[in-house]
C-alpha cells in the first residue's frame, strides 16, 4: 500500500511517499521456529535412545559372549577326568574348573589379552601367575574356535598327548592383588599371589607339592606341577 503525504506548507520539503508492505504478523516466523524445535526434539530423542542401547549392551555382554563347555578324558589310570571351561569370546579368555579324582576343584584362567595364566589350586592359600607361551596360545585359541561349534568334548586316551610342566614358585615375588585384571582380581582377592618360573624339573632336593591337569580339545593334556624355590 502506497501512502503519500505533504508536509506543512511552511516547509520547503517536497511531498514524500512511502511504500509499506502488509504489516508483519507476530506469527509469521512460527513455522520456522516450529521446525527447529521439532528437529531439536528428534535429535535429543535419538541421543537418549542410542545412550540406552549402549548402556544395555554394556550390561549384557557376559550373557551373550560366555559359553560353558565340558571336556572329559580318562587319566593314565583309566579314571575319567571331568572338567569344564567357561569361554569368553569377547575377551579372548578361558576359565577352567578342573575336578580331581578326589572331587576337589581348582581354577585356572587363561587371559590371552594380557598373556597371563592364573592358577587357583584347591587346598592352597595362594594363587600363582605364569606368562603364556606359544603352546599356551595355540591350545587356548583352538578351544575358542572349537567352542563355537560344540560344547562337549570327549577325548580318547590313545589319541591324547600328555605333557608335564614344572613351575617353580618365587615366594619372594608377591603380587598386589589390586593390580590384577578381572576376573583374576576377584578370584584371588582372599589369597596371596606369587609369580612362577618355568623349569625343566624341581631337582632332587626339591619336592613337587601339587599338580593340576588341564586338557584341551586339541587332544593335549598338560600336567602343571608346582614346587617352591628357595628365597
Portion of residues in beta strands equals: 35-45%
Major sheet summary line:
11 strands, mixed
The end-to-end span amounts to 105 Å
Report the helical percentage: 10-25%
> Care to count the β-strands?
13
Strand order of the largest sheet: 9-3-4-5-6-7-8-11-10-13-12
Radius of gyration: 36 Å
Category by helix and strand content: alpha+beta
Low-confidence stretches: 1-19, 58-63
Shape verdict? elongated
Order of helices and strands: EEHHEEEEEEHEEHEEE
Number of helices: 4
Q: How confident overall, as mean pLDDT?
A: 80
List keywords for this structure.
alpha+beta; 231 residues; 11-stranded mixed sheet; two-stranded antiparallel ribbon
Amino acid at each position: 500500500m502506497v501512502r503519500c503525504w505533504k508536509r506543512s506548507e511552511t516547509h520547503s520539503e517536497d511531498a514524500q511517499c512511502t511504500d509499506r508492505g502488509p504489516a508483519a504478523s507476530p506469527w509469521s516466523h512460527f513455522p520456522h521456529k516450529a521446525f527447529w524445535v521439532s528437529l531439536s526434539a528428534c535429535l535429543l530423542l535419538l541421543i537418549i535412545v542410542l545412550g540406552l542401547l549402549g548402556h544395555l549392551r554394556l550390561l549384557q555382554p557376559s550373557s551373550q559372549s560366555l559359553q560353558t563347555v565340558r571336556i572329559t578324558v580318562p587319566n593314565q589310570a583309566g579314571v575319567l577326568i571331568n572338567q569344564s571351561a567357561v569361554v569368553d569370546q569377547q575377551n579372548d579368555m578361558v576359565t577352567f574348573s578342573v575336578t580331581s579324582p578326589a572331587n576337589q576343584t581348582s581354577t585356572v584362567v587363561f587371559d590371552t589379552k594380557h598373556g597371563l595364566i592364573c592358577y587357583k589350586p584347591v587346598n592352597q592359600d595362594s594363587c600363582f601367575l605364569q606368562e603364556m607361551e606359544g603352546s599356551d596360545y595355540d591350545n587356548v585359541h583352538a578351544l575358542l574356535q572349537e567352542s563355537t561349534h560344540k560344547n562337549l568334548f570327549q577325548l580318547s586316551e590313545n589319541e591324547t598327548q600328555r605333557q608335564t610342566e614344572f613351575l617353580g614358585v618365587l615366594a619372594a615375588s608377591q603380587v598386589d592383588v589390586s593390580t590384577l585384571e578381572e576376573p583374576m582380581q576377584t578370584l584371588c582377592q582372599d589369597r596371596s599371589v606369587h609369580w612362577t618360573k618355568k623349569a625343566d624339573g624341581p631337582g632332587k632336593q626339591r619336592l613337587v607339592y601339587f599338580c593340576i591337569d588341564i586338557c584341551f580339545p586339541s587332544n593335549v593334556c598338560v600336567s602343571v606341577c608346582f614346587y617352591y624355590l628357595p628365597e
